[in-house]
Design goal:
The chain is of the alpha+beta class. Helices cover about 35% and strands about 25% of the residues.
């Protein structure tokens, strides 16, 4: 029995599989030439020149980091910690992994249990991405190596005897296999001989059958009294052959159609299973985006409003007169669409024409923008399935040329699923099945999904602005439920996806999934001339926005004003009157609304 000393088994890194037991302490670990345990430098498993040191104090061991970053003991980050038998040490988050033990023998030895445990951990750590067979092979190879290098003398002798027995057993098995193959060959030869005899007998019987048929035909011809009877007989034989050929063709066609129907049913079942899985996994992360835009004159510092009192609901008459300023309800354009979550910190992707409604729409606001009016977001919210309250949104960035934009939730929800976006090398094949998730027909579509009494109750609950109130009531009554449709991807290129999956206004900005549940595009446009084609943008454009560095407002919405520029002060009251109206809120606050987009 000698003094206890540390023993380290390397599970990964450039010393993977090695067992090291320095005779003296402290034990320094790193890539430096003076380290007791020296790892050759590696970019995949980075280690500092002097990364950590193991020290002994009265038979107890502890490890201390010599760098500014912590080490991981049993996956817990520490700068210094005591060590116990079988502790796992990782030198940094991507560094090599070692198993710590205390040895009290002069020579490094391990028990059989320790060798099995180390070999199993070695196979698991080194083969996380490999197959099960590869991991089993790695386990067996390491176990043999451990037995030879670190087993006791008695264990090595026993292991050698066991290996000899295994080799002997293998030899017996090989011999039996060879004998079995020989027996199989003999049986095959006998079967071939019997098959030959059967073929000969079948040929003889066929010949006799043909001879009998010929005799029968001769007898029938002899009995025929005229040429007409002979022609009738030949015609009957021809019809029989034709019927047999038709029957054979029908049977082949039936078999082909049966196989095609079976393949179609299998494909449909697979698609239904994939659709159910995608809907279950990702529909909670597909949101309904609702945007309300009012119009502000920066010269007069007044909003465009409906003529009339501020109380009560605005008229549904599209010709209701508007005015600049006054006390009526603000003239508000409402736009809705779909979006989906792409990060745990609350980033969503949608179409730019949903987030910036004036994008590529010169007539948005009835020409007010062309007269230098500015837009103010009266409401900018996202509603998720199963969530009782909408979440406020903040515009973040947009693609400079494509109909893609990004917004951030004011409060991220870590329980919502994040969509898996396709990478550049993700294969997209024309003719494959795609699925859409979104909110076609917007509020009307969601109301139509509900029972009539629930829909009427949601409409009746609407307070303040009727449109926004209905959306909030739908959220409270679990009415925010995206619609899934599927179709075939007919064309795909670097700038556009074309498919026949059914969609409608309100579905813009929703994700386009492939059969594996990966988002390959953003649903963008519908064809009003041809119902068999709808369009989406490849997800690469969304990744360009997300991967462009810190997400700032790179593409500004030119007619939009910030809250700093939109503080509106009321005109001074006449000398003989007091002001009877509070000043307008800042544009970022929720205010009254009117006309729907």
């Amino acid at each position: 029995m000698t003094a206890p000393r540390p023993m380290l088994f390397c599970l990964s890194g450039s010393l993977k599989g090695a067992t090291i037991s320095p005779r003296e302490t402290p034990v320094t670990i790193g890539t430096g030439s003076g380290c007791s345990v020296r790892f050759p430098p590696s970019e995949s498993r980075p280690v500092h020149a002097e990364h950590a040191v193991i020290e002994e104090t009265e038979g107890s061991f502890k490890i201390r980091s010599l760098s500014e970053e912590p080490i991981l003991v049993n996956e817990a980050p520490v700068m210094e910690a005591p060590l116990h038998q079988n502790d796992l040490i990782r030198l940094g988050e991507r560094g090599p992994v070692l198993r710590f033990r205390v040895s009290t023998t002069r020579r490094v030895t391990k028990t059989f249990h320790q060798m099995v445990s180390d070999s199993r951990s070695f196979a698991v750590e080194g083969g996380r991405q490999s197959t099960r067979v590869s991991r089993m092979t790695s386990f067996a190879r390491q176990l043999v190596k451990e037995a030879v290098a670190n087993g006791t003398r008695r264990f090595r002798v026993g292991f050698a005897i066991m290996g000899g027995l295994i080799l002997l057993l293998a030899a017996v098995l090989i011999r039996n296999t060879i004998e079995s193959e020989r027996s199989k060959d003999r049986l095959k030869d006998e079967a071939d001989r019997l098959q030959g005899r059967l073929d000969d007998e079948t040929g003889r019987m066929k010949t006799e059958n043909d001879q009998l048929r010929n005799r029968l035909e001769d007898a029938m011809l002899a009995e025929a009294k005229g040429r007409k009877d002979l022609e009738d007989l030949r015609e009957a034989l021809g019809e029989m052959v034709a019927r047999e050929q038709t029957r054979d063709s029908s049977l082949r066609d039936l078999a082909s159609r049966t196989k095609k129907a079976t393949d179609d049913i299998t494909a449909m079942r697979s698609m239904v299973t994939a659709a159910r899985r995608i809907h279950a996994d990702y529909h909670p992360g597909v949101c309904f985006v609702y945007v309300g835009i009012s119009f502000y004159n920066p010269r007069t510092k007044q909003f465009v409003r409906f003529k009339g009192a501020a109380s009560g609901r605005a008229s549904s008459d599209p010709k209701q007169p508007l005015t600049l300023g006054g006390t009526g309800r603000k003239f508000t354009e409402w736009v809705s669409g779909s979006g989906f979550l792409v990060s745990k910190d609350g980033l969503i992707i949608s179409n730019r024409h949903v987030i910036d409604p004036w994008f590529e729409d010169k007539n948005f606001g009835g020409g007010l923008l062309q007269r230098d009016y500015k837009t103010v977001r009266e409401a900018f919210i996202a509603c998720f399935p199963g969530r009782d309250e909408p979440v406020a949104l903040r515009r973040v960035a947009a693609h400079p040329t494509m109909d893609i934009a990004c917004a951030r939730l004011s409060k991220a929800d870590p329980t919502l699923p994040v969509m898996k976006l396709a990478s550049d090398d993700h294969r997209i094949t024309s003719g494959s099945t795609i699925l859409l998730l979104g909110y076609p027909e917007a509020v009307r579509g969601m109301l139509n999904k509900l029972e009539s009494k629930v829909a009427k109750a949601a409409i009746g609950e609407a307070k303040g602005d009727r449109r926004l109130g209905i959306v909030k009531a739908l959220a409270r009554r679990s009415g925010i439920r995206p619609t899934m449709t599927q179709g075939v991807l007919s064309d795909a290129n670097a700038e556009q996806l074309v498919y026949d999956a059914v969609t409608f206004a309100g579905g813009s900005g929703g994700p386009v999934f492939d059969e594996g549940g990966t988002v390959i595009g953003v649903n963008t446009a519908i064809s009003r001339q041809f119902t068999g084609a709808n369009y989406g943008l490849p997800i690469a454009f969304a990744r360009e926005v997300l991967e462009s560095g810190p997400l700032k407002k790179r593409v500004y919405a030119s007619p939009e004003i910030s809250s700093k520029d939109a503080v509106i002060k009321p005109p001074p009251p006449p000398p003989d009157k007091k002001p009877d109206k509070k000043p307008d809120k800042k544009p970022d606050d929720k205010q009254e609304s009117g006309k729907k987009n």
